[in-house]
Write a structure and sequence with these properties.
The complex is a heterotetramer, with two copies of chain A (99 residues) and two copies of chain B (461 residues). Chain A has helices at residues 2-22, 30-40, 45-52, 59-88, 95-98. With 99 residues, chain A is mainly α. Mean pLDDT of chain B is 88; it is low at 269-283. Classes of the chains: A mainly alpha (99), B alpha/beta (461). Bound molecules: NADP nicotinamide-adenine-dinucleotide phosphate (NAP) (2 copies).
């Protein structure tokens, strides 16, 4: 039962951190932030790996493998698209010329 | 070994935190995303190493298949389709959490299963499934598979309430009799229905807010799964996403000058109802129509232009040719700036992403508060596919859905040019009196076609 | 041994929160912040209570009682003086008249 | 029961976090302090309830005695003595942590004592004791019991290094042979010496930075004790203080334009060397001396005055009469503002606290960046017991310890008045060329005496 208490502590503290970090993010970054944090929520892949890790083809293993697939789409797709978006934000190298 | 595992998870958690922090500032955002990637890689690798990989084949296949799909989608996706992609991925994250929880239900890692594991298992099944079906509906609305307008069933809120009650009852039954496979399946079924009925009455254009909220849910689902498995990195990363998604939702609602409650239950949004209808109220006022060539001629004599992009720019995919046009103007010594309203387009930061894609440097983009004082000294305000964000009714018309929303003061510019297809209203369905102003030039047509025409005319001169 | 790991998680998360909260506090508040957080560090009184809680006068009990005294000075003194200081910060009620 | 206890501790932790957050903003600071109080009360009460209070007498006596002492000190203390009081309290927090850890060593709550408990026990003993003796030295310097100037022993840094090595060795011995009471006592002894040698080479005027650092240590000591007892609320509250103290230390160093390394090991500070000596370099320049009456006459014709308070105001306790004076000036229609340099005085926010005590409204106090542009349109800059924060050498003199520190631009005002006792330098020991400027009026004397004279003269006119 102790482990529930620990989990609640960890959860509460992490929620405080999440709140503190995101207040005052400029609108410019809302979209990348959404897709980036979306990718982070793919952390559930860790649970999927544990669930799929068996030398049998029980239902639980199959569901685990399915979970791996979905979570990995979320992780890889999310991070890559965020990186692509952020890569497009650049400062003007021609400013000196242009202005 | 447990130390190695736990410390790696701790390190991963810290990197997630730092990554998320960096994602919040323009200069460091890309680095932040990379930190989060490293954190994820660390968490995956240590899990594989520690758990000994008993069934390597299925795991590798699963990872490769998922990774490939994700990678291909990420490479191919158009920037305008970003909202639906994020929605879909959210759903995948949610369903993954549900699957893990259900798999844990079938073969628990630690027996006997304690009460707290069972409670968090229910939460995980429920939140994950709601995230899945809710996200699928959001995706369908944004992709045009479902109509964007709000679909309200009879007794909708009562239905939702009944569904919630059903979940609580099934949850209690499950805890009383965990052996029976019926209860978790019923919980999943009800959650699936609830996800649909939760999102379907929300207008297509409010979807970004819903997506941010579902993003938060997908984090909470991961966190709940972490409770089930007593795994701290799941709990922490999930909680970070849960909290930040909630804040983001709030920030978005604030920018639209609406409450979250109004977004979720207000059934606002007439996304599909464009066209020449429904504008101008009763009396017929006259507008002055112009062509791209007329606009090019006017541009001859001006010194400063502020471009105001809106949703129509995204629809028409006109960002690249717009950038070409603004470079032509600059070549003539005209001062060109972009004014970005926080809710222009259909998702937050939408215009920034689009224009960035077209290589517009981000220091040419001005946020509303930074540029609103400049319109009065500007020759031309060029509004491309935007309406609500420049609609002066927001200042004066008390019963308008826009009332109170801060707008870009384009009406203070010497000349106002609108590029859009019709006199149709925007997302809020509010007629724009500025169309009929004497200093306004209406240039009807698809944004891409008109701007291309402008570029051509500017080059020929 | 598990409990050490839990403690480290909790500590790390709390450190992140502490960092996030204090960056960008205006100098006006540095002194009250110092004395306020000083009082918070008197939380060690909780440990002192546990240490002093015995029906004997072993050395450990005596040290515990001493610890209570010191920690309570820190707690009560710190909070009261912070409150006193903050109570002195006021806005000008006469501004309308004065300006 | 364990749930009740743990949830109350969690609630207390959350309230500490919210309290600390609120403490960081002027509007909510007082509420924040109250939240922290409630959190502390919750933690204490639940501990008493759960542990059953086997020996109520000694506990009640301990709490009452400690509380009374703390309360009386808090009520009586002068605002100018704040730094030494905070220093002393820090030390008490530190020693409490050490005592708890040592008591736990004598009678462990859980046996067998594991390795990790032993390691954190050493940390707790060490950090707590360093905090105690370091704080006592800081207190003694600020209170004038020890000389404020840096006291550097021969081979000082090598001595510190040897002490650290000794602690590590004793720590290892302790872990090898935890039964022997010698090792923990040796660790305490070495820590006590180290606390002294750590603080004694730091100048008295740098003490605020040291206090902030020791504050951070006292938090870490509490956290280490929390590790020993596996008590989360100790760990969390301690970590909060540890982290915020460190950030505060850094903010202070930044404001003084010095690195933490330079503060700790630079042995700067000639706090005691005031007096008419050591100024102006070789050549003798002339200054114009004036009296309070002269100043009062000048005040007749002016429209705007900016008051710049400094350390001397605190020493002379002249804040109340200064407020009286500024009200007299305002009564004549003169615009009076206060310019507060971030490091004016001897601790951060020192001037704000002093002036607040004298009922100066805090919206009459301007931070440096907000007021620096106004000096050029101001008739009189009235500098009271300040020097470094207005010394123009900071802009020009490359080899000055002040070089690079942003200063208040008093030299742009039409008339500059200095109220101080002599031509002596300030904390940084840097001569102030502004004394010799044509537009400068020097009014020598104790700040309180001079301002009282000014008040009198203003009233008589
Ligand atoms: N950014 C967000 O996060 C977010 C989220 C949800 C809702 N919203 C809402 O969306 C609205 C955004 O305002 P907005 O000014 O950007 O857009 P808007 O008010 O929705 O107006 C878009 C305009 O673009 C025109 N348009 C459509 N397709 C076009 C094309 N192919 N070529 C040229 N013009 C075209 C339409 O007029 P025609 O039909 O006449 O062409 C329409 O009036 C706000 O009300 C906001 O609250 C924003
Ligand atoms: N605020 C902080 O957190 C902090 C912390 C550590 C160090 N410091 C340092 O302290 C300095 C603060 O600058 P500051 O301008 O406020 O003070 P300062 O440069 O130290 O100057 C104080 C002046 O007050 C005068 N004075 C002393 N007693 C007086 C009395 N009874 N009546 C009238 N005048 C009196 C002294 O001149 P006479 O002897 O001629 O009277 C002295 O020149 C900075 O160098 C800063 O870096 C600040």
């Amino acid at each position: 039962m102790e482990s529930l208490i620990v989990s609640i502590y960890v959860f509460t503290l992490a929620v405080f951190i999440g709140f503190e970090l995101i207040t005052k993010v400029p609108p410019l970054l809302h979209t990348p932030l959404m897709s980036g944090s979306n990718a982070i929520s793919g952390i559930t892949v860790v649970g999927a790996l544990l669930a799929a890790n068996a030398n049998n083809w029980h239902m639980s293993t199959i569901l685990g493998v399915l979970a791996i697939v979905f979570a990995m789409i979320n992780v890889i797709g999310g991070f890559m698209v965020t990186d692509r978006m952020l890569g497009m934000f650049k400062k003007d190298k021609k400013t000196e010329k242009g202005a | 070994m447990i130390y190695l595992e736990q410390f790696t998870y701790l390190l991963a958690s810290a990197l997630f935190i730092i990554g998320l922090k960096y994602l919040g500032s323009a200069k460091t955002a890309r680095k932040g995303n990379q930190y989060a990637m490293i954190a994820m890689a660390l968490a995956i690798v240590i899990t594989l190493v520690i758990s000994g990989v008993a069934g390597p084949l299925q795991i590798i296949v699963g990872m490769v298949v998922g990774g490939l799909i994700g990678g291909i989608v990420a490479k191919r996706i158009e920037m305008t389709e970003m909202p639906q992609m994020v929605a879909l991925f959210n759903g995948f994250g949610g369903v993954a959490s549900t699957l893990v929880a259900y798999s844990e239900y079938l073969e628990p890692t630690t027996t006997p299963v304690t009460l707290d594991v069972n409670i968090t298992l229910i939460l995980s099944l429920f939140i994950g499934t709601v995230t899945l079906t809710g996200s699928l509906i959001a995706f369908a609305k944004l992709q045009g598979i479902l109509p964007g307008r709000p679909i309200v069933l009879p007794l909708h809120q009562i239905l939702n309430l009944l569904l919630m009650i059903a979940v609580v009852i099934f949850g209690i039954m499950y805890i009383v009799e965990p052996g029976l496979p019926l209860w978790p399946l019923l919980i999943i079924a009800v959650a699936a229905v609830f996800g649909v009925t939760f999102v379907i009455p929300i207008g297509g254009a409010d979807m970004p807010v819903v997506i941010a909220l579902l993003n938060s849910y997908s984090g909470l689902a991961a966190s709940a799964t972490g409770f089930v498995l007593s795994n701290n990195v799941l709990i922490i990363a999930g909680a970070l996403v849960g909290a930040s998604g909630l804040i983001l939702t709030q920030l978005m609602c604030d920018a639209m000058n609406r409450s979250l409650f109004n977004v979720l239950f207000g059934a606002v949004g007439t996304d599909d109802s464009t066209g020449e209808s429904g504008t101008g109220g009763g009396e017929q006022k006259s507008v002055t129509r112009y062509t791209a060539e007329d606009a090019a001629i006017i541009m001859d004599g001006v010194q400063s232009v502020i471009i105001v992009p809106g949703y129509g720019l995204a629809v028409a995919q006109a960002q690249h040719v717009l950038h070409e046009m603004s470079e032509l103007l600059q070549a003539r010594g005209i001062d060109v700036k972009y004014a970005i309203h926080p809710v222009a387009g259909r998702m937050p930061g939408h215009m920034n992403v689009l224009l960035a894609e077209a290589n517009v440097p981000y220091d040419a983009l001005y946020e509303m508060d930074d540029i609103n004082d400049e319109f009065q000294n500007t020759d031309v305000a060029l509004i491309i596919g935007a309406n609500d964000v420049v609609n002066p009714s927001a200042r004066t018309k008390k019963d308008s859905p826009l009332y109170g929303m801060p707008i870009l003061n384009v009406d203070y510019a010497r000349t106002v040019m609108f590029v859009k297809r019709s006199l149709g209203a925007g997302f809020a369905g509010e007629a724009n009196p500025l169309f009929f102003d004497d200093k306004t030039m209406m240039i009807f047509g698809d944004a891409k076609a008109v701007v291309t025409g402008l570029v051509k005319a500017l080059k020929e001169e």
